[in-house]
Amino acid sequence: MQKVLIPSAGINENVISFLEEDSLYLAHVLVFCVGRSLFKTTEGHIGLAPKEAKPGDLVTALFGCNSAMILRPVQAGKYLVVGEAFCSGVINGEAFLGPIPGSFDVLYQYTERQKAYYWAFIDRDSGKFQVEDPRLVDVPLPAGWRRREHENEEFEDWFVNDETGEDNNTFDPRGSPEALKSRGVKLEAFDLV
Fold this sequence. Notes:
By secondary structure, this protein is α+β, with helices and mostly antiparallel strands.
């Protein structure tokens, strides 16, 4: 968890003059910024948090949650949920898997065949797209798990556990708490109030 250092609701003069030149951009930015504060963490990441965020709050990656969250310590081992945050260096699983390799970018890819968007990675050096997270390519699947063949393999992974019968296309078993702990990822359990 990283502490929030600098919540700020102000806009400086340079930003105002830029935004006046591009009102369409401003309209899109305002949708995401209304009611939010800009912050910087102790590790140098920047992001947007609820306007109620204050110094001493924590930016956390909660297991199973798609967004970073701002938590406020209230008692030993207990935290108040302040709200959802958008934070560089946290939103793409970096807290659990480490940084995305330098030549890769995360993108939301549209497929005409499925008429849907899917998360994917693009290797800027080769121009190739891949569904598998490049940080997991060399990590073996846990015992009992295998990839299932299916018609949308280019857009999503599907995993089957032959021992338990579990069958899913929404979760990579290499990201389970047990698998993360076995690779030395520090996970912390605490109470939300």
